[in-house]
Amino acid sequence: MSTDLKSATKLVVPGKSGRRRLTYPWVLLIIAAAIVVVATLRAVTGTADLTSTGQFGAALSAAVPIGLAGLGGLWSERAGVINIGLEGMMMLGSFAAGWIGWQHGPWAAAVAGIIGGALGGLIHAVATVTFGVDHIVSGVAVNILALGATQYLATLWFGAEGSAAAAAGGNDKQSPPMADMPTFTVPGLADWLNSVEGHHWFLVSDLAGILGAAVTHVSWLTVLTVALFVGSFYLLWRSPFGLRLRSCGEAPVSAETLGVSVYRYKYAAVLISGALAGLGGAFLSIGVHFYQDGQTGGRGYIGLATMIFGNWRPGGVAMGAGLFGFMDAMQLRSGGPTVHALLLGLAALLAVLALLRLRAAKRTQAALSATVAGLLVAWYFLVDTVPLELVEASPYIATLLVLALFSQRLRPPKAIGRPYRRGEGG
């Protein structure tokens, strides 16, 4: 049956002739080029924090919840169910983690977050798969329900006068604090990399700073996240289960005629999607040691954007989450000086975009991109600082530019968002 499914999938997903596929060697080449660009910016501008261990460690922490939300969206949408309820599922996960974490510790908080997010996924699955509710409407409803439920329950459980939670430091906006999540450091390697980083050698010290972030005070939840990305790739693209699940998002009627239980696979995908988003929410609570109202801060929506940027592939989602995490950490840690240095980086991205548009014979877009790139270069040399508003918006600006660079390669699942009823193939 697997061979039949592959054939059916190929029939509904024709190849795009004349367009080079973004393979993993190309992805690695892009990452290498990005490292060289950032190292060059560090050397030219003298902004050492651009490639420091602290910068990339903070970027890794910022990327994890976004990446988990994006990976959750990938699971759901590969099965054909649009999931804009990721934000609400993250809220449920962060609240559940805060509720359980102060009583039973961070590992129990992570499990609670997974269950809380899966509960949100179950609501979305029942609405969209069983009752055929529009996926966008259902996702919005999940977000609204999660916001109201977490605020009400926080007031009821954390802020109630005389309760154990209130006595332990909770209130109607946050849970009592929980214990630290264990981290690991590779002592000898971390010290050596830190020493190499301190020499500020071009590219060598930059690589040492990046690698140092991977061996210095790394949360075990971060390691779990990496394992989930690798496992998701092999499960979805290297197993019969993944082939059947993806067929539900590409050609559900064909999959049904070949014996696939489409409803069952859609339910499984949306539940896993919610669980991953809930773990992302739990990571936020565990990282600051408590749940707090408004803690997700739109990261579910950003995760959805990284999924689209990543072309519904785990590697692409990881790259998108890393980009946003880097920019978010940069503006939180260093603010104006580092963003000022990255004006040149944004100019370089726009210059590449201009060349691509010129190659595609889109001269107006190419001229516009080149003009803005020139203005950014002039801005860099004319001023020493940038407005606070630009500092705060820098992650979103960089993400939009990268989306513009890769938008022509996006190919969502063919049957995504379409209503499905059992027996349509007969």
TrEMBL record:
It comes from the Bacteria. The keyword Transmembrane applies. Pfam families: BPD_transp_2. It is a multi-pass membrane protein. Its main location: membrane. It is found in: Cell membrane. Keywords: Cell membrane, Membrane, Transmembrane, Transmembrane helix. The chain crosses the membrane at residues 26-44, 56-74, 81-102, 108-133, 140-160, 210-237, 267-291, 339-358, 365-382, 394-412. PANTHER family: GUANOSINE ABC TRANSPORTER PERMEASE PROTEIN NUPQ, SUGAR ABC TRANSPORTER INTEGRAL MEMBRANE PROTEIN-RELATED. This is ABC transporter permease. It comes from Streptomyces halobius.
